[in-house]
Write a structure and sequence with these properties.
Helix content is about 15%, strand content about 35%. The protein is of the alpha+beta class. The strands form 12 sheets. It has an 8-stranded parallel sheet. Strand 23 and strand 24 form a beta hairpin. Helix 1 packs parallel to helix 2 and helix 5 runs parallel beside helix 6.
Length: about 775
């Protein structure tokens, strides 16, 4: 890794809180947090989150405006209040304990912020930019009583104002108003809902709203003509970094030079103009991977004028695409299929809600993914600060980034759609150069869904360097699949379940798991926690989780064609108790070493995944037991149930027909197989309530999945797992057929001779 990816940039200048002497005596205190994280009490009062907030576009001079501001709440249509009766710690939202306000904000409220600042004397002659990392939702800014540009609408994208003409040369006053209707408006909200801000009962998968300023606010001096963004796309085919420098203040068309360095030594440079693509050579590029997240330093400077703008940045050389691997459509990183195993990451905090208390806290959740052996994270219906992406880039985690959804159960109107798409493009622009970010997730489970195919095409055209998921959870909640994009994405709880394979898109599991365990003393609302499947103990949680991961490794990935999976979830969130960690991050619930080993085994297996097992579709076969001492027995049906029975040349014709099956392409997955009864056409070998039987399907997804078996190569035969329950196998025990999992809780899960009992030989049919 480059030695100094992001310089230690010192803030400059003396910044004064408050609007004037009459406010100097106002006290401020944080409110007690519902749960205390390890960082709750480490947040500075006057300068929280002091780190440079924009690591991929750095300048040496800047001044943070985080800290204590005057604060007031008025009715939504009111003008600026005459007095500000409260104080708030920015950038924590007023719903949070760390803000010092901690109360519910509704669609009838408008938030008002005020503070003063002085511009450092060393900035003379330069333009002063007022930057906001994010503010939710409609934000209007005044400096010294004059409005700074147009109001900004959006809760997840950064925005800036050139406030130079509004400055007075001395003590300046900035006033900010924010209106956030949350679910009563039509905008992107993700999982925010207006509700009580302190713990309360309720089995809800949506959480406390976060209104107003929730990311860093800061001042920055720039030259009149300056760089606003670097769009960087690695191109491994010719070992170049394609860079488009964006600018403002007359920078368009100006000369620019971009240099890529490693450890302080330049490896390549190119010159061109702002707005045009430059091709910077990066010979013998060291590739960015989760195992080796190597980052190159990047500088861009305007040329032709002394003292022209210069910025620092970084990049990682990697590619992402979808291609055929062993006859299966797979995502490939740097041309190689590597299974993506990750978690769902909501990004909520009990003390700061939307805002992590410190940069160390922001990093912690990502580091914990690495500690647990995951190589991917799905950032779920929220967009984090740029420093979160920096840590993902630096630590080496692949990122699926959701576009936050509009409210579920509603059809967005024309204005809401236009706003949502505009904000989506702004988010793409803001994060398009992160090497960790490999996939955009447009919509989720049909929440606020519309124009799925068009939006996927729009996103792919706007950022062709990444994968696009048009809908996560197309099998859930009346969601509609646009039919395009790079992946097809199912949700299965507890799962892991099956995502049918396709000839063009890769099959991924956007959500599964949700195993729950409540840790006494670490519950948001004691006794109120819920999950998709509660576990009675920590050992049970570990066994169940590792079993899911092993099922994906043994069957879901090699036989079912699954290429990625997202476990729900990395932490508990409010009353959701299905995290690998408690909501306060004080407890890691699972055996970290054991989960890490299971993830590493899954990733390692994907690197050597060969072609899937092929069976003779359309032909009749008989399926023989391979367990020593029982090798003369075959699968047969009797009174609708599955058994094994000795079959030989002298057996009755009826028995021979009962022991003959026609191989069909899998009803629920074309990589897998279904077995149709020879003498009961239209009836299949399926599992229901664990017992395996011969049964006609009803056309439902469940019946098709129950009758689909995914084979993997075994010792002396094949093993067949259920398409919808990878890791659970077709087994004979006491002559009966069951869906079984080694070491499970049922009698048919007995681990004795389990592998032998779940291994089958495909033979010539007894009844052709």
């Amino acid at each position: 890794m480059a030695a100094a990816v992001v310089p230690a940039l010192a803030a400059t200048g003396l910044l004064v809180s408050g609007a004037g002497p009459s406010h100097a005596a106002q006290a401020w205190d944080p409110k007690p947090s519902p749960m205390t994280t390890p960082w709750t009490n480490q947040v500075p009062v006057d300068n929280p989150l002091p780190e440079y907030p924009r690591p991929q576009l750095t300048r040496p001079d800047w001044s943070p405006l985080n800290g204590i501001w005057d604060f007031a709440v008025t009715s939504r249509d009111a003008g600026q209040p005459a007095t500000f009766g409260e104080r708030i710690r920015v950038p924590f939202v007023p719903e949070s304990a760390l803000s010092g306000v901690q109360r519910k904000i509704t669609q009838n409220d408008k938030l008002w912020y005020r503070r003063t600042f002085t511009v450092p004397s060393g900035w003379t002659g330069r333009r002063v930019q007022l930057n906001f990392g994010a503010s939710d939702w409609e934000t209007t800014v005044w400096v010294n009583g004059k409005q700074a540009g147009a109001a900004h609408r959006g809760g997840y994208d950064a925005f800036s104002y050139d406030i130079t003409p509004l400055l007075n040369g001395g003590t300046n006053t900035v006033v900010v108003s924010v209106y956030d209707p949350t679910e009563t408006g039509g905008q992107a909200i993700g999982k925010q809902r207006v509700q009580d801000v302190t713990p309360h009962p309720g089995r809800s998968i949506v959480y406390t709203a976060s209104s107003g300023i929730w990311q860093t606010v800061w001042l920055e001096p720039t030259a009149p003509a300056h760089i606003t963004r670097l769009d960087m796309v690695p191109r491994l085919a010719d070992n170049t970094l394609r860079v488009t420098v964006r600018g403002a203040g007359g920078a368009d068309g100006a000369g620019v030079k971009v240099t890529v360095s490693s450890g302080g030594t330049p490896v390549g440079s190119a010159t061109g103009t702002v707005g045009g693509e430059l091709s910077v050579p990066v010979p013998n590029a060291r590739l960015w991977t989760p195992e080796d997240p190597f980052l190159y330093d990047v500088t861009a400077e305007l040329t032709g004028t002394a003292g022209a703008d210069k910025v620092g940045s970084y990049t990682g050389m990697r590619s992402i695409a979808v291609k055929d691997v062993g006859g299966v459509r797979r995502p490939v990183l740097n041309g190689t299929f590597v299974f993506q195993t990750g978690t769902l990451d909501q990004g909520y905090w009990p003390d700061g809600i939307y805002t992590a208390p410190t940069d160390d806290a922001l990093k912690y959740d990502l580091q914990k993914h690495k500690d647990l052996g995951f190589n991917m994270v799905r950032k779920h219906i929220k967009v984090e600060p740029q420093r979160w992406f920096y840590w993902a880039d630096r630590l080496g985690l692949l990122v699926w980034q959701d576009m936050p959804s509009m409210d579920s159960g509603k059809t967005p109107d024309t204005a809401a759609r236009a706003q949502w798409e505009s904000e989506y493009r702004a988010i793409i622009d803001q994060h398009r150069s992160s090497p960790a970010l490999i996939q955009w997730v447009d919509q989720n489970e049909g929440w606020g869904q519309y124009d799925q195919a068009r939006i996927a095409d729009m996103v792919k055209a706007y950022d062709p360097s990444r994968l696009v998921d048009n809908m996560s959870g197309v099998n859930c909640c009346a969601a509609k699949d646009g039919g395009n994009g790079d992946v097809i994405d199912n949700h299965n709880y507890v799962g892991p379940g099956n995502t049918p394979t396709e000839p063009v898109r890769a099959s991924v599991l956007g959500e599964y798991g949700g195993l729950g365990y409540r840790v006494p003393g670490h519950e948001w609302y004691p006794g109120g926690g819920f999950s998709y499947e509660d576990q009675p103990s920590v050992p049970a949680l570990n066994n169940r989780l590792v079993g899911l991961l092993d099922g994906i490794r043994e069957s879901g990935m090699p036989a079912g064609g699954l290429s990625a999976s997202v476990y729900t979830q990395i932490t508990d969130v409010e009353n959701e108790a299905n995290g690998l960690m408690s909501y306060d991050r004080q407890v890691v619930k699972v055996d970290q070493a054991r989960v890490r080993a299971a993830n590493q085994a899954l990733i390692a297996a994907s690197r050597s995944a060969g072609a899937t097992v092929k069976l003779p579709v359309g032909q009749n076969v008989s399926i023989r037991v391979t367990t020593p001492g029982y090798t003369d027995r075959y699968i047969r049906h009797y009174d609708g149930l599955g058994f094994t029975e000795v079959v030989h040349a002298a057996s009755a014709d009826l028995l021979k027909r009962d022991a003959t099956w026609t191989v069909r392409q899998g009803l629920a997955n074309k990589l897998c197989y279904s077995f149709e009864s020879r003498n009961y056409p239209g009836e299949y070998l399926r599992h229901r309530d664990f017992r395996v039987r011969r049964e006609a399907g009803d056309g439902s997804t469940v019946s098709k999945e129950d009758a689909t078996w995914c084979p993997t190569q075994g010792n002396g035969g094949i093993r067949m797992s259920a398409a919808n329950f990878p890791g659970q196998y077709l087994r004979h025990i006491n002559a009966e057929l069951w869906l079984a999992q080694s070491g499970g809780s049922h009698a048919w899960d007995n681990p004795a001779s389990f592998t032998e009992d779940t291994t089958w030989a495909i033979e010539s049919p007894w009844a052709p």
